[in-house]
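Tokens as discussed.
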């Protein structure tokens, strides 16, 4: 029998007056989600709650109402399960973005997201921003997601090469991707195998900024049979270290019967096996190959700074205004993906077209279906009096 068990806890922390984190568990769809809102006043709370609700709404429409359309683009080579999860996140992005455009009080609100979807013989992961998914397996903790941070962006572009440069980077609180800031978002998805006894930790950066990975590992190792205790201890540890931000921890344990775990490595066996009801498989074998991802989690080493003064809750928003820097970013991505670089003109022309009546109504109100949203969002949105964070929004992804 395949089974996932979960427990979760969210806490306002020691410095904030309200909680802008949110989480949702929809067991009927095998869905587990954590969001970390940003934007000032109550808007971060609105963004995170709206995102959790809309991701579930999309799953309900797809699996419950029989609407199996997938209106949004996804990365080439992704499986059906990955496209479903990616579409649910992009659907939520539409709703948050339109709400922010319609209500001046909510303008510029956004949120990060991490999500896990039960895929039968595997787990599907999706994320945007710097909330994280960890996996504890056989005595070792591994970070499965890679932060969409300015730090990692500069490492990818080759601007930070040495360990000294990486440790000396002072802007670890800047992220380059978030939900709700523009009329498109590019979720990152992946497929991971599942083994009985695995414990996944979905968390906001209120935990990961203050509690080291080795400490999280020790807590999980000592409390594998009590997920509620894991969540409680981790939240308390973050608060003991200052609790500068809201803290959310969602624990998911794989409680499959080991005797019933199937081995899909043999292609002949894969073709002949009878799967249990509800099992979903990747559409193509390529999707299960870790090498198809530019980021291989097996080789990832967390390089988050240990200097607490360099981390803080997210808030202000900046855009890619510098054309030269934007083009440099595009060239680095093209080289990394072994693809042909695009000109700035084609980058603008290839902006993803979104579905949904709200988006179309918004565009028509601005001068027709071809009208584009404003080029910039407000440059600064203050949400924290001490050390606010920054979001640098990425250029639109290229359509397939």
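Sequence:
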């Amino acid at each position: 029998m395949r089974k996932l068990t979960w427990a979760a806890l969210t806490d306002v922390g020691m410095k904030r007056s309200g909680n802008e984190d949110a989480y949702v568990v929809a067991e009927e769809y095998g869905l587990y989600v954590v969001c970390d809102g940003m934007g000032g006043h109550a808007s971060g709370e609105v963004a995170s709650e709206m995102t959790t609700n809309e991701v579930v709404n999309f799953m309900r429409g797809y699996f419950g109402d029989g609407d199996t359309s997938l209106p949004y683009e996804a990365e080439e080579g992704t499986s059906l399960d990955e496209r479903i999860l990616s579409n649910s996140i992009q659907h939520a992005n539409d709703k948050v973005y339109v709400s922010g455009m319609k209500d001046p009080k909510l303008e510029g609100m956004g949120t990060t997201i991490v999500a896990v979807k039960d895929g039968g013989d595997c787990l599907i992961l999706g994320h945007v921003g710097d909330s994280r998914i960890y996996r504890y397996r056989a005595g070792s903790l591994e970070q499965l997601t890679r932060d969409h941070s300015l730090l990692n962006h500069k490492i990818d572009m080759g601007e930070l090469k040495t360990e000294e440069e990486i440790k000396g980077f002072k802007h670890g609180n800047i992220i380059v991707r978030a939900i709700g800031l523009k009329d498109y978002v590019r979720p990152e998805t992946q497929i991971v195998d599942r083994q009985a006894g695995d414990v996944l930790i979905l968390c906001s950066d209120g935990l990961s900024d203050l509690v080291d990975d080795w400490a999280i590992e020790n807590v999980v190792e000592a409390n594998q049979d009590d997920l509620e205790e894991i969540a409680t201890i981790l939240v308390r540890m973050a608060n003991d270290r200052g609790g500068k931000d809201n803290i959310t921890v969602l624990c998911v344990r794989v409680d499959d019967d080991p005797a019933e775990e199937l081995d899909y490595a043999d292609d002949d066996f894969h073709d002949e096996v009878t799967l249990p009801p509800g099992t979903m498989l990747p559409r193509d074998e390529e999707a299960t190959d870790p090498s198809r991802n530019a980021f291989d989690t097996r080789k990832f080493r967390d390089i988050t700074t240990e200097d607490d003064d360099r981390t803080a809750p997210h808030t202000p928003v900046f855009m890619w205004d510098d054309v030269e820097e934007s083009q440099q970013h595009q060239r680095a991505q093209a080289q990394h993906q072994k693809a042909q670089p695009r000109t700035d003109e084609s980058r603008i022309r290839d902006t993803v077209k979104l579905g949904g009546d709200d988006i179309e109504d918004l565009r028509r109100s601005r001068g027709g279906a071809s009208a584009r949203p404003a080029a910039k969002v407000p440059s600064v949105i203050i949400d924290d009096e001490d050390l606010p964070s920054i979001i640098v929004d990425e250029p639109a992804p290229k359509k397939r």
